[in-house]
Every structure is written in C-alpha cells, then in structure tokens.
C-alpha cells in the first residue's frame, strides 16, 4: 500500500501483537490510524489479518495516541472535541474519558496520571488521578512567578518537577507539599528527561550531554566519555538496560578517530551510577556481524584497511539502536535502511 506511512510501532506483550500507528496520503497524512496484528499472523506471512483500533476516535493532528506499558493503558486525545480517553491495553475496552478544554497536558506515572491545566496568572492548577478509573486523588495549585514562561512540569511518582524561565528548579512532594529548590546555575533546562524508576533517579539531556540527578536535586553523575551524536537528544539512539545501570548510546567519536574516518560515530557503553565508560565500538573495533539485511555481504577478508572502512561505514548515520540483553548483542539501523549486529 504505497500511500501508508508507519509513524510508530508498539509491541503489546499482553496479547503478543504488534500495534502500528500509520498516516495515509489519502487524507494528507493528517490522521493517525491504529492497527493490531498478532505476531503469529506476521510470522505466517498474513500481515493483513489484524484489525483496526480506536476507530471511534478522530486522531487528526494535533490529536495523538500514547501507549503506556507500565500501567497497561492507552491514552488517546481527540483534538476536535478536546476529549482524552483511557483504554485497557489488554482488550482495548474504553475505561473512562476526560473532557475538559482547560487540560493542557497529561503525564503518566505508575498508577497515576497528572493533569496540567492552562495556567492562571500566578499559579497552575493540577490534578492527580488514579490511572485505573480516573478518580481524582488530589487537586492543588502550584504557585508561579507571574511573568515567566514555564519551561516544563514533569511528574515522577509523588515528585513534581517545575522549572520556569531563569528560575530555580522546584521539586515538590505532592503528598506532603514539601518543596526543594535547585539553583538555576546548577540545573539548566534540558531538552529531554528519562526517569529511572528502579533507581529513583532521572537523566537529563542537554547539548549532547547526559547527567544523572536524584530527587534531592543533587547531581549524581556526569559522564566521562559519553558525548551524544545528536545535539537534540534522539532517544531512538539511546538504550538503557532493564536494571537501569548501563546506558548505550550513539556518540561522537574522538576527534582523531573522526579525522581518519570522516563521518563515523561510536557506540559508547557507560555505567549510569559512576559515569565510567565501560566499552566503546569505534571504527578501529572489529567489524559487525553480518545480518541478512546488513549492508555488505561480501567477505571482509584480512585486509585491515578494508575491514576498518566497513566498520566506519556501519557507524555512520545511525538512526536507531537496540541492545538485546539476553544475547548481549547491539543492533543498529542506519539512514540507508541497513541493520548491523554487533556481538562479542
């Protein structure tokens, strides 16, 4: 079907199926369409045997669909009637809906949902809901500096992180209203966050740098050798292990390496708690294992120059990275549609 573009894929472990979120040329790629296909159908070569999901919802831009693995829920937003709906990921039944034009954003944490409403002059109204049935657990206002824009409001379990332009970071405990501040000189607004629920820490990404913080507002780790390739934190190129102790990223190679190999990056593996670089794959490492879909199937032979070129090529323009923890293999995909497997 030439007019379909798949925007995202989600593996639903509850029913061993793959959910595709696509847009179509027929409506100028403006509406999201979701489809569930059991993995067994795909393996049997019957990818059309699936069924459409959320057909009742108008997911026209800026509407969206968000899959939440932790709580086993799906959140949809229909922009034309300002309605959010929460569905069960196991059987796709609708659980409840939230219809309020003043809701600006919804953040999901284990067990709860934070509703952020349009700000008033000197505060922002917030509500915490149970993710299971939508009951309001708590409503409160968070005070703001009047004329300053809000850089972000993020939620992590009972902690709320609020940052306004040129102001300190505030960390609020919503259970007891305790407030902590981190100096704006120490904490600059990042372009992205990753919350590490196992370790009660969070990662921030800013200008190619990764930092690790705790919820007392202390910097836990800065990395010794982990300068990301993309300045704007592309999380497709970052993998965090399930124990949340290692981060594997597509990074900028050392300058000398780059000078020799042109546009090749490196794959760096660092310890999240210490910041130490434990291993890295550079263009002087061995070649990747050849995958069926990998770029060069010709034998690399013993010529080390040829071998280095093949590795350097595989380290260029990486757009996606995944680590298989059971097999201890790293998979990378690049801009040209090739997949490489890196194994010990």
From TrEMBL:
Pfam families: DUF7899 (PF25463)
Compositionally biased region (Low complexity): 294-304
InterPro entries according to UniProt: DUF7899, WD40/YVTN_repeat-like_dom_sf
Region of interest (Disordered), residue spans: 283-306
Transmembrane segments: none
PANTHER family given in the database record: OS05G0482600 PROTEIN, TRANSDUCIN_WD40 REPEAT-LIKE SUPERFAMILY PROTEIN
Protein name: Transducin/WD40 repeat-like superfamily protein
